[in-house]
Write a structure and sequence with these properties.
Keywords (chains A, B): Coiled coil, Oxidoreductase
Oligomer: homodimer
Number of helices of chain A: 15
Shape of chain A: globular
Family (chains A, B): Belongs to the isocitrate and isopropylmalate dehydrogenases family.
Protein name (chains A, B): Isocitrate dehydrogenase (NAD+)
CATH superfamily of the largest domain in chain A: Isopropylmalate Dehydrogenase
Bound molecules: 3-isopropylmalic acid
Strand order of the largest sheet of chain A: 2-1-3-12-11-4-5-10-8-9
GO molecular function (chains A, B): isocitrate dehydrogenase (NAD+) activity
Radius of gyration of chain A: 20 Å
Helix content of chain A: 40-55%
Pfam family, one (chains A, B): Iso_dh
CATH topology of the largest domain in chain A: Isopropylmalate Dehydrogenase
Largest interface: A-B, 59 and 58 residues
Number of domains of chain A: 2
Chain lengths: 354, 354
């Protein structure tokens, strides 16, 4: 329970590209909503510098040691998108900063809600966040010049805790069914284990049904208007979770609008699910970037630390503003509307909500 | 060139579940279209028995030796869906028959077209068909009771031939762009190699553009009405190809309507992309199964062996019939319309087309 802490420390990592611009706006809104708490010293915002791609490349680590140390002093983290190095980039082959953060802080549950009331969609994805192809993602083997091997890793314990998180959530929220997604007909050993462990866990939740699907046909079912509304809670290995949540977010307006909660036993991190769009920065357009994904991540953070009322206000404001002013921001180049203008509009809307 | 052969031997593998019922109907239609050729001895249909799940389980092999020998005597194969064994099934842990057939006959290119003219969709997927998580799919390692590992394998040669197939197709068909789909930001060694080799191959096709996307965001782009029509030809590693083509097929009416070509240097196999629906058989409903996927696979087969005119007629008939009678078949339980009735209707339609 965060509220029993003397001070809840919220770390803010701006990230790369458009990250600092949009994360800054999200922070402004959270500070606005928690103004009294900040003044009382109950909540502290702490901007953590030095998690940029240049710094990461310089020290050759996905997260510089001093940054990691600072992160571990926070209770929750709000994070902007970070640039993932790729082959041919001018920096060493370091791992993605968000992938590293998930592993270093053991944020094993990536929880991604997708709600589209007008389509009858109300999904919550529990994506395992530390194993699968991500565990050894940058440690594959070049057996020879022409033969490359990567590894997929699944453990019973890793699967058990994400399955329990999904079933707990379903039970607490009166959901009827948890859907397990694998490719156990082909990737037999690891996905087979994932499915087996989920089945075991499900036995402890007799009030919740379990069904299972293969990831290929699942991507089709999300599009099927008759079938998709029958799904509620999903639990998936890391990579299928990565894939299916991007597809799902599209129904809600795209990855640019979706926030993501990375939850562990000790730490939690809330982030945008899209990339850092360095091209926008190069073209001087970062001040026009749509900040709604990080703002939504901020709402999830508020909810997580127990500021439910504030979270609800922010969700409501996001809903109202997405209908109107967001279009202004999205076309900011032409209209001059900036991310800051959008954040202002959100805060005005919250004020009006009272 | 198949037409230079004395006799083109078309092997027919019924498969499991609804497979024999729907494959039988597809065969009837092909025999109808190639009636003269069969009478002249130019084309021979050869039904290959014994590739059932019971037989496969009995001999403990994905494809029984005698079946494989028979398959290798055919020039092309028409295949119904086969049941994939899963853990807990009453047969040994044998590999999926279609996966084994792709590897044994070295059918490296899985070509899946998806066309939806009214949505402006005209996609052709080139899915690599022998490597990736499928290469050692049933040979993962249980390091301990709680730790499972699977392997992803990518070779330069394997990637080169599928990339060349995609770029050749694009060039010959006046397509502007080939889109490579990987997750090279995380699965760095294998997907990185896949992307690198595709880039190398693309240099030999200056008239064709190449772009690349990550599989997660690609599943979202297929849904984005503004963006999806900009894609034409895709090339992907096996598993992402499996996933993305099921999603894509949904726009065309679902996997039940999509055919799939598995092409190698020596052999080719054409199949439905959906499963064997054993439940329908258990309930005595297999005679009502929708055969359009295998029929479409049959049209692809005709096209492949050079019977272009016959293929075109069949495609046209499929298009006409999907608007009308198919609904009858899909709801056959109530209306009494069977797969055979649907096949009859297709043949009548072909007759009318003249
Ligand atoms: C940027 C990338 C490494 C990351 C992932 O693959 O997890 C992203 O796609 C996400 O979903 O958060
Ligand atoms: C049945 C299964 C093994 C197969 C695959 O994964 O390739 C199927 O999904 C397909 O796409 O043909």
């Amino acid at each position: 329970d965060y509220k029993s802490l003397d001070t809840i420390v919220i770390g803010v990592v701006g990230g790369d590209g458009i990250g600092p611009a949009i994360t800054g706006q999200a922070q402004r809104i959270l500070e606005f909503l928690l103004n009294d708490e900040v003044n009382k010293g109950k909540v502290e915002f702490r901007v953590i510098e030095g998690c940029t791609i240049e710094k990461r490349a310089e020290v050759g680590k996905a997260i510089p040691d001093d940054v990691l140390e600072e992160l571990k002093k926070c209770h929750v983290i709000l994070k902007g998108p970070t640039t993932t190095p790729r082959k041919g980039d001018p920096w060493p082959n370091v791992e993605s900063a968000n992938v590293a953060m998930r592993k270093e802080l053991d944020l094993f549950a990536n929880v991604r809600p997708v709600k589209v009331p007008e389509l009858g969609i109300d999904w919550t994805f529990f994506r395992e966040n530390t194993e699968d192809s991500y565990a050894l993602g940058s440690q594959g083997v070049n057996v020879s010049e022409d033969l490359a091997i990567d590894f997929k890793v699944i453990t019973s314990q890793g699967t058990q805790r994400i399955a329990e998180a999904a079933f707990d959530y379903a039970k607490k929220n009166g959901k009827k069914k948890v859907t397990v997604v694998t490719k156990a007909n082909v990737v037999k050993t690891t996905d087979g284990k994932f499915l087996d462990v989920c089945k075991e866990v499900s036995k402890n939740y007799p009030e919740v049904e379990m069904d299972d699907w293969y990831i290929d046909i699942m991507t089709a079912k999300l599009i099927d208007e008759k079938r998709r509304t029958q799904f509620e809670v999903f639990v998936l290995p890391n990579l299928y979770g990565d894939i299916l949540t991007d597809e799902a977010a599209e129904f809600q307006g795209g990855v640019g609008t979706a926030g993501s909660a990375n939850i562990g036993k000790q730490y939690s991190m809330f982030e945008a699910i899209h990339g850092s769009a360095p091209r926008m920065v190069d073209e001087g357009r970062d001040i026009y970037a749509d900040p709604s994904s990080v703002i939504r991540a901020g709402a999830m953070l508020l909810n997580h630390i127990g500021y439910i009322e504030e979270a609800d206000k922010l969700y409501k404001a996001l809903e109202i503003c997405s209908q109107t002013e967001k279009k202004l921001v999205m076309t900011g180049r032409d209209t001059g509307a900036t991310s800051a203008a959008y954040a202002n509009y959100i805060m005005e809307t919250i004020d009006k909500l009272g």
